Amino acid sequence: MRPISPVTAGRAAGGGVSWAQARRLVSWAWPSDPARLVVCRCGQWQAGGVIVGIGVDIVDIARLQSALRRTPSLASRLFTNAERSRGQASLAACFAAKEAAAKALGAPAGLRWADAEVTYDGAGRPSLATSGTVADEAARRGVLRWHLSITHDGGLSVAMVVAEG
Question: Distance between CA 138 and CA 164 in Å, rounded?
Answer without folding.
Answer: 10
